[in-house]
Amino acid sequence: MSGALLAAWRAVAFTWRLGNATVRAATAGLVGMLVGFVVFAVLGQFAPKGWGDVVWSGGILLSGLVMAVLGFLAAFRRPAPPDVMGSAAWMGQRELIRELAAPALATDPAALLVGRGEGRGRVFGPLLRHAGSAHLLTVAPTRSGKGTGTVLPNLLLADRPVVCVDPKGENARIAVRARRRFGPVWVLDPFGASGQPAACYDPAAVLDPASPDLADDAATLADALVFDPPGQVAEAHWNEEAKALIAGLLLHLACRGGEGRRGLPELRRLLTLPPREWDALLRAMAADAGAADGLVARAAARQLGKADREAAGVLSSAQRHTHLLDSPRLAVSSDIRNWTVSPRRT
């Protein structure tokens, strides 16, 4: 008996997975009849004399009919969307209004404008704003209005810190006056594209020798200076060694650099020293075991330990990647004697 029931259950499970509405209805009806067979066989024993067979057969038919209808309806139930690749979905109009057009968002000065809801006729839809911590991405073809529709409105209205990459200087020209209502505004523009007074900033000059993140900060800056495109396997060794050398020099400047001589122009000057002075610098760094917990000495020893040809190649690679620092405009823009950018928002 148990073997027959197990076989029946496996057959039901197999046919249910076929997904066809008729098959599922028939399967559910069969299950209902089997359940009704057992249940109403018991109940039929308590029925009045002569009604036992009626209750039993009627119960089987009723159970089968109910289960068949339920199985048929279940076949047309919309399945839950798969979440293997994530559970993101497009918002409906009601969700859009509830999440992005709430009255609280309209009065939040830091909320970002992300668009406008659908309107009716000549009536514009409500402005949509976002004040959460999730990342926002605007994707549209060139010259389709990303700047005028998204970037500029937020620069003009959002009372929050903003870092804006503006190669043409258009956003700075339009929004710099409005941004000053919210706090200080600095335009890093060494080439004068925006027509605004240019601020001065040198990322190497803010390396703090007392910070536990000094080594990581120097490595990050070195990685930004060395252009290392993927796929160039032949240059990988020279680029990685150039990064290590530049990071060691940045640590040396952060710990031992004099006033006004800790930035990127000084880094470039050290990398272009005459051979004798360069060798003397490396030996002085190698003897400075106390700078940056010994990392300066390690970087110098790493360079001094290379064969002449390899050492010359690493130095040449570091010089090549920092050649842009010879630009007089960049030198003025990173001159910390004219530093105008504060590391904190006021």
From TrEMBL:
<dbReference type="InterPro" id="IPR051539">
    <property type="entry name" value="T4SS-coupling_protein"/>
</dbReference>
<keyword id="KW-0472">Membrane</keyword>
<dbReference type="InterPro" id="IPR003688">
    <property type="entry name" value="TraG/VirD4"/>
</dbReference>
<dbReference type="GO" id="GO:0005886">
    <property type="term" value="C:plasma membrane"/>
</dbReference>
<protein>
    <submittedName>
        <fullName>Type IV secretory system conjugative DNA transfer family protein</fullName>
    </submittedName>
</protein>
<feature type="transmembrane region" description="Helical">
    <location>
        <begin position="23"/>
        <end position="43"/>
    </location>
</feature>
<dbReference type="Pfam" id="PF02534">
    <property type="entry name" value="T4SS-DNA_transf"/>
</dbReference>
<feature type="transmembrane region" description="Helical">
    <location>
        <begin position="55"/>
        <end position="76"/>
    </location>
</feature>
<keyword id="KW-1003">Cell membrane</keyword>
<keyword id="KW-0812">Transmembrane</keyword>
<keyword id="KW-1133">Transmembrane helix</keyword>
<comment type="similarity">
    <text>Belongs to the VirD4/TraG family.</text>
</comment>
<dbReference type="InterPro" id="IPR027417">
    <property type="entry name" value="P-loop_NTPase"/>
</dbReference>
